[in-house]
Write a structure and sequence with these properties.
The complex is a heterodimer of chains A (116) and B (114). Chain A has 116 residues and is mostly beta strands. In chain A, strand 5 and strand 6 form a beta hairpin. Chain A is globular and about 45 Å long. Chain B is 0% helix and 49% strand. Classes of the chains: A mainly beta (116), B mainly beta (114). The interface between A and B is medium-sized, with 24 and 29 residues.
């Protein structure tokens, strides 16, 4: 069965530092890949998604992610962290093909702390 | 455009009681999904509606959970009778189409069973 692994349940960075949140998926056929963010007391919001074509995907709020098939990874990065980036981040996948109903399989989530 | 709304935001009930959660998707979104996050665990898929039809209910934990989407608009998720392990945050999401289309999430309902 498809699974998603996010390395590190908590990541702490200083304001202005690079943000790197890791995500690996398990399937041999590359799925659709997503990063969602959840701010306190809000629903999940889509940051970016990879469906095909360009392997470097740019999202909202300065985030981007690179799909690496050889590493089965889809790590999320941002060059310079802002205090407002403090939130919980979720990597998710859904299967391709005719069986794809959009059902998302999530990683465990990573809480990003940004220190002043 | 109004987003996905969920009611109530919090619910505290005793074991054995019944609770009904409601989700109002974005208008015009045929696809509606329910997910659940138990404390300390990942968010897990429960089921998927296309309009009023259940497309995939493979994630429903057991027959104590009943989901409906009458008329293809809002959806309800009933838990009867509730057990301690049902505690968690229940999220609803909607999308125009299935597949790789963006799912818009509601803020969730936090259910606590005591």
């Amino acid at each position: 069965a498809q699974s998603v692994t996010q390395l590190g349940s908590h990541v702490s960075v200083s304001e202005g530092a690079l943000v790197l949140l890791r995500c690996n998926y398990s399937s041999s056929v590359p799925p659709y890949l997503f990063w969602y963010v959840q701010y306190p007391n809000q629903g999940l919001q889509l940051l970016l998604k990879y469906t095909s074509a360009a392997t470097l995907v740019k999202g909202i709020n300065g985030f981007e992610a690179e799909f690496k098939k050889s590493e089965t990874s889809f790590h999320l990065t941002k060059p310079s962290a802002h205090m407002s980036d403090a939130a919980e981040y979720f990597c998710a996948v859904s299967d391709r093909g005719s069986s794809n109903t959009g059902k998302l399989i999530f990683g465990q989530g990573t809480t990003l702390q940004v220190k002043p | 455009e109004a987003g996905v709304t969920q009611f109530p935001s919090h619910s505290v009930i005793e074991k054995g009681q019944t609770v009904t959660l409601r989700c109002d998707p974005i208008s015009g979104h045929d696809n509606l999904y329910w997910y659940r996050r138990v404390m300390g665990k990942e968010i897990k898929f429960l089921l998927h509606f296309v309009k009023e039809s259940k497309q995939d209910e493979s994630g429903m934990p057991n027959n104590r959970f009943l989901a409906e989407r009458t008329g293809g608009t809002y959806s309800t998720l009933k838990v009867q009778p509730a057990e301690l392990e049902d505690s968690g945050v229940y999220f609803c999401a909607s999308s125009q189409k299935a597949g790789a289309y963006e799912q818009y999430f509601g803020p969730g309902t936090r259910l606590t069973v005591t």
